[in-house]
From TrEMBL:
Keywords: Cell inner membrane, Cell membrane, Membrane, Transmembrane, Transmembrane helix. The chain crosses the membrane at residues 167-189, 209-236, 373-394. The keyword Transmembrane helix applies. This is Type II secretion system protein GspF domain-containing protein. Its main location: membrane. Belongs to the GSP F family. The lineage of its organism: Bacteria, Candidatus Zambryskiibacteriota. It is a multi-pass membrane protein. PANTHER family: GENERAL SECRETION PATHWAY PROTEIN, TYPE II SECRETION SYSTEM PROTEIN F-RELATED. Gene3D superfamilies: Type II secretion system (T2SS), domain F (1.20.81.30). InterPro entries: GspF/PilC, T2SS_GspF_dom, T2SS_GspF_sf.
């Protein structure tokens, strides 16, 4: 990056100019080595206004997956760590990620280990990521470690993305349907109801219900909207409390059909993370501790935290997990086999693949069921609404014809 600076020389003479450096700290250090007293320094090119917007500047999981795959390839090519992060910083298009990579380059230039430099950016590199890199540094197998990380993140990203994308379509269709119904009840139905009522014809009961709903939306729609916003606000506040996070985690696991998908998704993340860490030479206790921070569900976090305490006290992991209903018996039994044979890493990898396939199959099944169910329900909703309006109009037309 290019930085413009204003400074004072030792003689008191003013100096200004530009300096090329990978980060602000490196630029300041270089100028100070020249004997300059810095008065002001700033990037020559500031990020555009849209780069400062949080959702534009956000670092997604996809960014981390691509970054990890690039690092794995470069480490396998025996490129130095400093050169790798310098190259990646120059190539990335995300301003926030580029800034973090610049800081990592500065840390590496000052002699910091890679794991310590990454640990300064927890919003990008999780505890799991940092511990994996630290293990690679200790064993001298950083190329293999980044390969493990890239594969692990690829698998998790694929499974989680498929599960999330499966819910986007029905959520979009339902949202559009609700919006159309609200518009119908607030703008179209009132005009039609005035015509039907003024005709003096007998109004069927189902038509009266539709007119009643329309009047409710017109008279109390704003109050209903305000109530929903307030409810949403309090729900968000509640789920941020310890009790609320547990309740939300339990709801995700207990909701019909979707709960089963969530269970398999969390189990696949746990198994894959344990497999990756144990295969990289990280001790069992540390693997359990880090995995508990990776899984995104308070119930499973508590299960792993309790298992960590029991394993630390001398119990095998299989026994520590077997007492929890959230852990299937087949997983506990397979872990016991791994403990007895000394192949825990392979066992966890096998179970991870099993649950990942199960998640994908479950998602495909749910999507296959959701589409026809939605078509039937939406068809019934539209049909009832049209029938309640068109039948009285048809009666009025017949009466006028007579």
């Amino acid at each position: 990056m290019l930085f413009n600076y204003k400074a004072l020389e030792s003689s008191g003479k003013k100096a200004e100019g530009a300096i090329e450096a990978v980060s602000l700290d490196v630029a300041i250090g270089s100028l100070q080595k020249r004997g300059l007293i810095i008065a002001n320094i700033e990037p020559a090119e500031k990020d555009p206004w849209y780069a400062r917007i949080s959702f534009v500047n956000r670092i997604s999981n996809k960014d981390v997956v691509i970054l990890s795959r690039q690092m794995a390839v470069l480490f396998e090519a025996q490129v130095s760590a400093l050169k790798i992060f310098t190259l990646l910083s120059a190539e990335t298009e995300n301003p926030s990620l580029r800034k973090s990579l610049d800081m990592i380059v500065g840390d590496l230039q000052s002699g910091s280990p890679i794991s310590k430099a990454l640990a300064r950016h927890p919003h990008i590199f999780s505890d799991f990521y940092v511990n994996m890199v630290r293990s690679g540094e200790e064993t001298g197998k950083l190329d293999e470690t980044f390969g493990f990380l890239a594969d692990h993140l690829d698998r998790n990203y694929e499974v989680v993305s498929k599960a999330k994308n499966a819910l986007i379509y029905p959520a979009f269709v339902i949202t559009v349907f609700v919006a159309v119904m609200v518009l119908m009840f607030t703008f179209i139905i009132p005009k039609i109801s005035a015509i039907i009522v003024d005709s003096g014809q007998e109004v069927p009961i189902y038509t009266k219900i539709v007119f009643g709903l329309s009047n409710f939306f017109i008279d109390y729609g704003l109050f209903l909207l305000a109530a929903l916003v307030a409810l949403g606000f309090f729900v968000v506040r509640y789920v941020r409390t310890p009790e609320g996070s547990v309740a939300l985690a339990r709801f995700k696991l207990d909701v019909p059909i979707i709960g089963n998908l969530y269970r398999k998704l969390y189990l696949s993340v746990i198994a894959d993370t344990m497999s990756t860490m144990i295969s990289s030479g990280i001790p069992m206790l540390k693997s359990i501790e880090v995995t508990s921070t990776v899984v995104d569900n308070k119930i499973y976090k508590d299960v792993l935290s309790q298992a960590f305490s029991e394993v630390k006290g001398g119990r095998p992991l299989s026994q520590a997990l077997s007492g929890h209903p959230e852990i299937p018996s087949i997983l506990a039994q397979m872990i016991r086999v791994g403990e007895e044979t000394g192949e825990s890493g392979k066992i966890f990898r096998t179970m991870a693949r099993f649950y990942q396939r199960d998640v994908i199959n479950t998602v495909d099944t749910i999507v296959g069921l959701i589409e026809p169910v939605m078509i039937v329900l939406l068809g019934l909703g539209v049909g009832v609404l049209l029938a309640s309006v068109l039948i009285p109009i048809y009666d009025i037309a017949n009466s006028a014809g007579v």
